Every structure is written in structure tokens, then in C-alpha cells.
Amino acid sequence: MHEALFQPIKLGAIDAANRILMAPLTRGRADAGAVPSARMVEYYRQRASAGLILSEATGISVEGLGWHAAPGIWNDAQTQAWKPVTEAVHAEGGKIVLQLWHMGRIVHSDYLDGNPPVSASATTAPDHAHTPTGRKPHVQARAATLEDIDRIVADYANAARNAKEAGFDGVQLHGANGYLIDQFLRLSSNLRDDDYGGSPANRVRLMDRVLGALVDVWGADRVSIRLSPNGDSQGCDDPDPAAIFSEAARVCQKHGLGFVELRQPGPTGTFGRTDVPKQDGVIRSIYTGPLVLNSDYTAAEAEADVQSGRCEAISFGRPFISNPDLPARIRVGADLAPNVNVPQSWYLPIAEGYIDYPPMETAG
Q: Which of 179, 287, 354, 357 is catalytic?
């Protein structure tokens, strides 16, 4: 059943045993100081049967992380605490890459000693931020200076080196969902008139520089990116998505990335509108490497898109939360376990709804 999903594939230098990838899932279970916790070791070990695990978004710096109990990778304590995670995944025969995250204007000033967050321009994200002391309106960001941009690129490079030290199989740049890279890509959040604003070629410049820094550390075939050409994402939108994401695809092709993952509109999408045209065809016409799609897929839909050649693999997010053995369930057509305590168990630093989902053979 679903034969196409169970064919092995090379994602750059990474040999994936199947085409059912685990999408990045922020879960908020790190210890104080953004240090990965012991519970995270078991969480990832349980899901090692994915063809490749794309880790939860992981902060590259204090400045870039504004999510309570999310992990980081900017210092030695964090790096050392990631090692048991990668060792556990590898011991189960799995592969795991680290997703590198700078949240830009989504970081609330409460995380920054009252200072404003940095973004492409002096704009304010819509809605509210979740802070250690409750929900608060987002604050206006300050526009990144050229010196800030140089420092941020260096922070990504440092995080990439730490990820290698921690034993990951590669890194993925989080360029999606209205975070810093996305804030530079899209016109609603990028109002700059310098070399990083205006034309699509300028707006991809930060993404291009960061990818270059990651490739310098890892080699192109162990670097990937997640993009979300899906309409509004946390206030980031663009009147001509085909133009900006075509330019982004050209950057990916230039660097020869191991794969590109797209978060596209789905019927129950977490980010973005559901009524905008999908851009995978535009990107596919430019970027010739493996394409991974993530759009609230069912197993049947995933099989069809892989079999047709629309993409090489599918990344599943929420189904992996309550189904640590998701590939096995898909292989035999078993029912999926439902997520419970949603959304509390998704994001809160509690034990319930994290590593207590039983595998298929003991469920019931």
C-alpha cells in the first residue's frame, strides 16, 4: 500500500529510507536557557522511522528566539544537549536535520530586555505574542542595519557549526511562516530602499547570504530551506508571489541545495490563507533538486503527488504528534490516533501529549 511513499530517496547527501518526512514542529519542551531536555531525546527517538526528521525550529541567537521553552543552538550547553537527540535517532536508523530559526519581528521585547526586535523594516506583526507572562500585542520592530545583517549571517554560520558538532545530518533554513527570512522576502514587511529591499533580486539577498554561509559549513548537499508561498503568514504577504518565489527558487538552484520544502495552503492550514494559488509548479520549473511538499496531506494525497512526480517526498506535521510510528500506520492503512488536548499539548511545556502516545501495536 502506498508504494511510492516507501521508495528510498536521496535528499542531497542524505539517504532517506522512505518519502514520509517529519515536518518541523515547534513543541516548547526545552529546559531553561533554551537547552534541549531529556524528554526531547525520547520524542525524536520515537519518530525515527520517518525518512528524515526535520527538527523543530531552533533559535540561532537570543535575539532571534521568542518562543517560550523552544530550543536554541547558539551556545555550547545547547549544542551538547542536542547530542543525545541525534544519537538516539541514529541508533534507531533514522536521519535528522536541524531547522535554523530567527523569528525577527515575531520576537516580543519581553525576551530582549525591553529592546525592540529586528526585522527587514520598522513594522509590527499582527495579533499577539506569547510571552512568559502571557499574551501581549506585538511591538514595532526596528529595521536591521547593514551591521545587523552581517551579524545575523554570522549567527547563522555559528549555529550551523554547532549543529555539525551536535551530530545532525544537515541543516534547514527556516525561510517560511512570517519569520525573519520571510520578512525580508515579502513586500508587506520589507519596505527597504537599499540593496535588501525593492526588487525581488534584492529581497532575496539575505536568504542568499545565509544559505551561502550554511553551505560553507555543511556543503550544499546537506543544506535545505523551508519556504511558504502561501499568502499571508503572520502579516507577511506579497502582491506577486510568483515573482518573489521564482527569485527564491533561483537562489536555491544557484546554491545546489539538497532539497527544498514548501509549506503550501491546505484545507486546515496552520499558517496562511487557503484560497491562494500554489507555487510549487513555479518553483519546480526553476529548482531542479528534490522538492518536498507539506500541505495537510492525507496518505492517499501524498502517494498521488509523489507517484505523479509533482514532488519527491511529503513532510507530515500534526499526524506525527500523536502517531510516532506514522510510516508503519500508513504502510498498512491503519487508523491514525487523534491529537488530544489540542492545542495545549502542542506548545505548552507539559508532559502530556508529548511522548505518551502509544505505538500502533499497543494502542487500543
A: 179
